[in-house]
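Help! Submission page says 'invalid entity' but I think these are all valid:
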Amino acid sequence: MPALSANKAPQPAATNPEIIRNFCIIAHIDHGKSTLADRMLQLTEVVDPRNMRAQYLDRMDIERERGITIKSQAVRLPWTSGIDGKDYILNMIDTPGHVDFTYEVSRSLAACEGAILLVDCAQGIEAQTLANLYLAMENNLTIIPVLNKIDLPAAQPEKFAKELAKLIGCEPEDCFRVSGKTGDGVLELLDEIVKQIPPPQGDADKPARALIFDSVYDSYRGVVTYVRVIDGKLSPRDQIQMFSTGVKHEMLEVGVISPEPIASKGLGVGEVGYLITGVKDVRQSRVGDTVTTAIRPATQALAGYKDPVPMVFSGLYPIDGDEYPVLRDALERLQLNDAALVYEPETSAALGFGFRCGFLGLLHMEIVRERLEREFNLTLISTAPNVVYQLTTEEGKELIVTNPSEFPQTKILSVKEPIVRATVLAPSEFIGTIMELCQQRRGTLLGMDYLSEDRIEIRYNLPLAEIVFDFFDQLKSRTRGYASLDYEPIGDAEGDLVKVDILLQGETVDAFSSIVHRDKAYAYGVLMTAKLRELIPRQQFEVPIQAAIGSRIIARETIRAIRKDVLAKCYGGDITRKRKLLEKQKEGKKRMKMVGRVEVPQEAFIAALSTNADSEKVKAKK
Amino acid sequence: MGQRLSLYIHIPYCVKRCGYCDFNTYTPKELGQSGLGKSEISSQYIDSAILEIDRASSELADTVSIGTIFFGGGTPSLMEGRDINRILSHIRQQFIVEDDCEITMEANPDSVDEENLAAFVSAGVNRFSFGLQTIAPHLLKTLDRTHNEESILKALEIAVKLGVKNLSADLIYGTPGESMEDLIKTLEFALHLPINHISAYALIVEKGTKLASQISRGEISAPDDDLMADKYLVIDSTLEKNGFQWYELSNWAKAGAQSQHNQVYWTGGNWWGIGPGAHSFLGDRRWWNIKNPISYIAALSKNESVIAESEVLSDENKRDEKIMLKIRMRSGLARSDLRASDIAVIERYINSGDIDLENWEKGAVVLTLSGRLIADRIVRDLVV
């Protein structure tokens, strides 16, 4: 029986680093990371069988439903090796799995000495996994390649073992084969972790230094900060200090997660656990920062601290203007738990009062929006996402624009936009399709490689703005869902960009302004004006819809004036029915937005600003 | 005493159902009564209607007099003359009926002859409203109507001979396939008839009708609103030129020939609707009866309530209805019915030429011709 009973296991703050193994699992969404973690919890007997449930470590509903992990966690697993019979402590550090959270992933990796590269052997490696693998290799982590789901009929372990071997530089036989579902091979994998992954190195006598790799707001305890101790020791009575800000906090509790939080006498070299200081806001306890003690502070921070930089911006507006204060409070609350979320109040002539919010990426944006709607019961309109533009005016002034409606029309010398390096992995039959899409989106081909006979890795530089505009949906639909995408920002580049305004009856509708490449401005204008002509009901007068660059009109549609808006008959039996219809229309009218004299139903804004999937959602809600 | 009450009597039977009609009416076959003869159905139904009249009279007879009576349907002219007589005699027994009480019957030109019209008239009916709809044969076919010019002329000739002075024709315009010429011909035909009242209704494609499904299957094209507007303008100018003045959006009459009964609906008067699916309105209470004639008859025979649903109007409901109904009339909405915040809306529509300035200065909101075409839009602006 290799599991260790809790009271016999080595205790926190009294564990020799030699017997500690810190590892993480790198995997794509759906490749079975949470299920494998579940099996490890069971085999190490840290969870009572009666309390076991699927995806045990995924806390938020949204994580469990979408099958993705947003916030990482670290679990302390006592284990007696089946190879040498000795007791070990395994710290499993869960990492977020999405491109938007690359920085958080990199900090989780920095807290480990090894990584399990987990690949679904019916699907092969995906772009994000590859990106995280490279990140792990850069951090000099020991990689254990593992093929999961060997129980599936469609499993092709031979093929994907070759693929993994080629990527890591090992032999195909070195790839482990497990099934998280049946538990096959998981016990052997735990032993292999002990065998292959090196123990942490650190100096117990030096001033304490611990890396923050996650920071979570808990409504009962305040911020819970997850750390990995590099040097020295953290004790419950220490006053700690954050390196980046110099701010000191009283320690209220130190502990480990196993997998429920257990207070401990401290954390020693190589150990992973949590700190609670009574801080209420994750921005005071930032991922990547170094924790030291106030009484004996370290002189040098751990490498790699970065402030989160929002890459994608969107305006969020409550459909019901009365909900503005609720939205404000909700954003405040979410920010406690999300250091990367930034927002500031914004007023739109068309949409009323709202907030311009900055996100790490599209998924981050979607998650925030979904949490706002789900946890705070809000119904929101979001404007089309955009990136950050750096402008230089003719007078030589530098401007940062995060809202297209603030983009000046004249006297611009140059505009810079963020560029990303994108990696697409797909079956090779889609090479042509993918290249065509990337070319359309102003991409520059960097190179391509065969991962195996029929799978290819294509690398492009692309403007982030192009990715933000339905690139992923297009990629998925053009490759029947087989392609995966990863990207990382690599800097800014000048682009021939213009602002396209949409005018209703000569008045600019700020919510529809967009910054697009000059070559695409015409197509965008034609698309938007045609869309709006369908969406805006006929008014008492003719309404021209125009798309314009500055004062130059590039597209035009007209909504003809309504001629007739009356029901012919209204007798005794019709009155109640007609009044009830009127009451409904009254409600609709209250939600009508006025653009000049033109009445635009809220639904038209939502439909015009959304991708198709979004407007379906809105319909379903009604 | 002193209060007026109108009675609506619903006759829920038709020989066949017309393709555009969503009224509460049934063919004997639909009711599974195909075995019964017309006179049996008629007399059985009238027994029940009389029971409901008794309910109305026990509640109200002491306090009201009857100002108007209206037989609608369905096809009231399908009833036997003696049955109509039974109803009207019973009403006279139970209520005080005013001397000049308007008693209207909707009639299908196909279902009248000298004999039954004479019987209706001697029972007390003094106004007939004939369903003319159109005279274009291809449109009558789309509408599932079986009459023709000849049967209409004949029906009216009999009515005139019987000394009936108040005669009306109902027109339907905008039927798919109707050309402007079709409409003008129908108008010219109607103007040659001995009538003093015309109702003209734009065809509404109601959900669940045969016409609606033909349109959704693409067999027939949907009516076009812009064309409807043009046709309304043609109708109004033709009728006005020939001495018919609009007094409600879809109703035109020669001097003094306005329908008294319908004006009760539009001015918030009290009425009791007798029969399945009929609506009633008393003070601030409105209710409507169960729709199915067989269930209606059964409920009355068991001395149970026939009310399907009822509502008590809030002040806001009353205001909404007043605006929605009175604005349809030439007499218009009184300035005193408006809130201060409505004045800006009125002024906007005066500027756009949709509300008449002269009447406004005299204290009434009266729609102009263009305003009549967008009446619902103006109502929406006034009720928000």
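Support: the input was valid. A stray whitespace character was the problem, and the output above is from the cleaned input. Chain B touches chain A at residues 8, 200-202, 204, 225-226, 228-230, 232, 249-250, 262, 265-266, 271, 273, 277-279, 281, 286, 288, 311, 317, 320-321, 324-325, 328, 352, 372-377, 379-380, 383-384 (CB under 8 Å).
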